[in-house]
Amino acid sequence: MAKPNSGVVETKGAIRYFVQRGGSTPENPVRYSGQDAQFLIIENTDRPLSNIDPIYVPHERDASSFRYVGRNRQPPDLATFTVQYMRYVGNFPAHLATIDDFVTFYQVIGDTTDLSDLSTAKQVTIMGDAEPTSLSEGGGAWDNSEQIIDEVEYASPRVYTIGKIAFNEVGGSVVTSEVKGVTYGRRGSGIEAIYAVVDSTVSSPGSPPVVIYRTKHNGTVSSMAITGAASTDVPTDIAVVGKYLVVTVDDGGSGAIFVSELDDDTGVPGTFTKITGVDANMIYAPTARTVFYACDGGVIKRASDVSSGNFETILSAGVLTSEDLLAIHGLYETIVAVGNNDTVLYSTDRGDNWQASVSPGTGANITAVSVINGSTWWIGTSAGDVYYTTDKGNTWTQADLPAALTGINDIKFASPEVGFVAAVEGSTARLYTTYTAGVNWTTGSPRLENLGTWTRFNRIALPDTRISIAANHILLGGLGSGTDGVLLSGEPPLM
Q: Given this model, what pLDDT does residue 2 score?
């Protein structure tokens, strides 16, 4: 075995810390420990993964023993850790003044030319929205010149690590036209199965839209035409809803969705069934049964059984707007739909009632939305701007992305801290990412590797699974060069 040294393994001297007092929102600055925040170190981090209890039944052939038949997984306890603060001379310690506040900590590993630049981090452990549980103030003898060190115990609902995401093209030989939608399946750890829908109407001659899929990690990529679709049906989105794969299309009329049952054992799509009367531009599926459709003309529809063809119009055309709704997303009770001419609509009761937000004043079509919680939402526009609100849309703030962009096609967040924006700069696709709740944004190394040069990314997908996986995996679908499509899978190069 080779002898490890500082050039082979990470060392403790390469660790530094950043603090976001008030918790993970884009309004709270991220401060560098020792420069514009107190000196600190973090120790004794305990990250419970789950509580697992065995399930035994009496053994059928031995009355004195039991047979193991499974396990019962319970939610994990909160993660805990200890922060040691050294008091800066001449300043009142923030950890004493605001002891009850939420705090997000960023533990950064890796050498860099500028230690205060968080965007150059190679690996970051995020301790989100931590709350203090106890405080021990430092003290000592009168004749002692050692530093005063305070210890604060914290509990956090999420502690996870992010690092490099390396991209690879998936199914280059079968992705022959522009990818309009991408999604992960619900198999294994959440990254094994991927599905994409390709717009084949631009082919010569035109043909029905095609579903691209892979059901095993690094497995074979296959394609299948959507049965019953016409060569003029332009796909708009794709989603896995429970055991079904759902594709929405613009057929030039009242719209349609195509539904296929996924094989329980293989994840391969079956024959598609066409359901008419849904002119949806985007799908939002909060559960394995319920699905919402953002439609043209200010319409929002909901289905509780996606395969039945029964759906209800929960917001009719012209009630709040007649503008086309282009994107929809939500979390728990809150759902937000956005569309043309600065339109933002929202519901706080899972879609039963809707109201219009204060206009963000973008002067453009709103093409993307991501809901972080009931109050914090992100939107992107056709003019290339990104905005956020932290008060349910009463006020809006433009985010500071480090480029003059010409379009935003999608926004996805894996957690309150980690998010991605699919943008266009001129005629080139851009992917921006944040891991500081939108305070800082970066594109390229060391967080994003081998992204390549493409025309545009239409959709982002993140796996619906544990946060440590979702924050380090991503699917991108769009237009490569000419009329060729591109499907990219990004994941950490594990060792």
A: 57
Whole-prediction pTM: 0.94
Dig out the tokens for 245 from the structure. 């794969």
User: Band of the pLDDT at 309, cuts 50, 70, 90?
Assistant: confident
- Is CATH 2.130.10.10 the right assignment for the domain spanning 165-491? yes
User: Rounded to whole angstroms, how far apart are CA atoms 383 and 246?
Assistant: 30
Alpha-carbon distances, residue 96 vs 80, 107, 137 (angstroms): 19, 21, 9
Q: How far is CA 357 from CA 128, 354, 375, 377, 458, in A?
A: 28, 10, 12, 11, 25
Domain ranges of the chain: 13-47+80-162, 165-491
DSSP one-letter code for 118: G
CA-to-CA distance for 23 and 106, rounded, in angstroms?
Answer: 11
What is the enclosing helix (H) or strand (E) of 70? strand 66-74
Distance (Å, whole) CA 310 – CA 207: 28
Q: What's the CA gap between 11 and 480, in Å, rounded? A: 41
How far apart CA 386 and CA 408 sit, in angstroms, is: 8
For the domain made up of 13-47+80-162, give the CATH fold: Pnp Oxidase; Chain A (2.30.110)
Whole-number Cα distances in Å, 63 to 55, 56, 66, 70, 71: 17, 13, 8, 19, 22
Structure-token pair, residue 26: 């884009």
* pLDDT the model gives residue 362: 92
Q: Nearest 5°: CA angle at 478, between 477 and 480? A: 120
pLDDT band at 9 (very low <50, low <70, confident <90, very high): low
Q: What is the pLDDT of residue 143?
A: 60
- For 31, 91, 242, 398, 417, the CA distances from 16, given in Å and listed in that order, are 11, 21, 42, 30, 18
Q: Tens of pLDDT along 80-104?
A: 999 999 877 777 777 777 666 899 9
The three-class DSSP label of residue 233 is coil
In sequence order, the β-bridge partners of residue 70 are 55
pLDDT at res. 469: 95
Question: DSSP for 175-203?
Answer: --S-EEEEEE-SSTTTTS-EEEEE--TTS
Answer for the pair 114, 140: CB distance below 8 angstroms, yes or no: no
Q: Other CB atoms closer than 10 Å to residue 345's CB: what's the count?
A: 24
* Number of C-beta neighbours around residue 136 at 10 A: 12
| Residues 147-159 pLDDT 10s | 888 899 999 999 9
SS3 47: coil
Residues found in the chain? 495
Q: Token digits for 2? A: 């080779």
Q: Which residue has the higher pLDDT, 91 or 375?
A: 375
Percent of the chain with pLDDT over 70: 95
Task: Determine contact, residues 478/178, Cβ cutoff 8 Å.
Answer: yes
Residue 446: cis peptide before it, omega within 30 degrees of 0: yes
